[in-house]
Amino acid sequence: MIKGKKIYLRLVREDDLAVLHQLLNDVEAAGAFWPVSLVPEATLRQRFQSNGMWSDEHGELLICAEDDRILGEIMYFATARYMSELEIAYRIFRPEDRGFGATTEALGLLTHFLFNFREINRLRLMIDPDNIGSRRVAEKCGYTLEGTTRGCVFHHAAFHDMNVYAILKLAGPSPHPKTVRVRSSLSRSNMRRYSTKERPQGTMSSSFMVFSGFPGHHQRVTWYR
Q: Where are the domains of the chain?
């Protein structure tokens, strides 16, 4: 579980599959920008049984409210084999759950997790130029517009351009002016900069990590094994 302030991210469980099957196949609720596809229940169960929908090449997490209600999904997947890069995609399933900041927090949580627990230097998002909401999510989380990939996605009977947003681990979020160094028991490479307001007492155990937030979004993030 990756816990934030208002939502948390968790792995898919077997008892989620029936509800998840309904949510994934609600074409009308998908909105104007999510690629439409129908997922057979047998395919969904096969994906879960093969690896729990979590591997080095592809991982899926559910975005959940505090009462464990499923709000959406966020995933990462490999792009070109020669690139130190993963792509992230996300969505909130129901229209009534959108616009409350869940997607922004989910993207921030997963970005921190991947940069700190995976040997990866670059994360990217592919966003339709007309998807103003998703572009704002990317910018709030520190992603930068790099350019446009022309005519790369077929959706609603037409080919669409996609804007490329990306963030680099080496560039990283801007540190808070008042920072201290905290040594993690995980490894020397996991030393990070933290605000004095967020400093844990003593040495952190390997069961959790506390990260500084993106510029202007200072937050506490906890990873539970």
A: 2-172, 175-219
